[in-house]
Design brief:
Order of helices and strands: HEHEEEHHHE
Helix content: 25-40%
Number of strands: 5
Number of domains: 2
Largest sheet: 5 strands, mixed
Radius of gyration: 28 Å
CATH superfamily of the largest domain: Cytochrome b5-like heme/steroid binding domain
CATH topology of the largest domain: Flavocytochrome B2, Chain A, domain 1
Bound molecules: protoporphyrin IX containing FE
Strand order of the largest sheet: 1-5-4-3-2
Number of helices: 5
Distance between the termini: 84 Å
Shape: globular
Amino acid sequence: MKKIIIGAVVVVILAIGAYAYFQKQSNNNNPVSVPGNGPGVEVGSAPIPGIADGSVPGKPTQTDTYTLSEVAAHATKSDCYTAIRGSVYNLTSWISQHPGGAKAIEGLCGKDGTDAFVKQHGGKSKPEETLAGFKVGKMVQ
Ligand code: HEM
């Protein structure tokens, strides 16, 4: 019985070794692999539309455009867009995090918030950087 178990273990180890060896061989011999792309990366395969540029279907990108009335469609604290200096920001998740209080942000939802933001924070690095992180696009007429 002991011999059978030892034999089985040896067979399994040999099988794993052989599998690993052949995996390595087939990657090295891959005719379409290119240095720098790593083994097995195909060259010239068609990009997947809408994915290759890093965009996610249905998710806003920084190049989207909005009219003021489109911004106005996001005027609640559970869906809050604002326009500041010609760019559009989705501040929904910032409402509950704002050190200056939720109300200050809620008051900007669906509106042009330029005056309020610039008056309070214009040119200050922390608020400017935070704001930039929420950009979803640009304003158009
Ligand atoms: C519209 C987007 C806004 C963003 C992204 C923003 C961001 C920030 C940030 C990052 C801070 C912390 C500053 C620090 O730690 O140095 C802050 C603080 C504060 N914010 Fe805002 N804010 C916005 C709008 C407003 C508005 C409209 C008001 C008032 C009407 C306001 C009033 C305040 C106050 C009173 C503080 C605490 C004191 C200070 O650090 O200046 N914020 N905000």
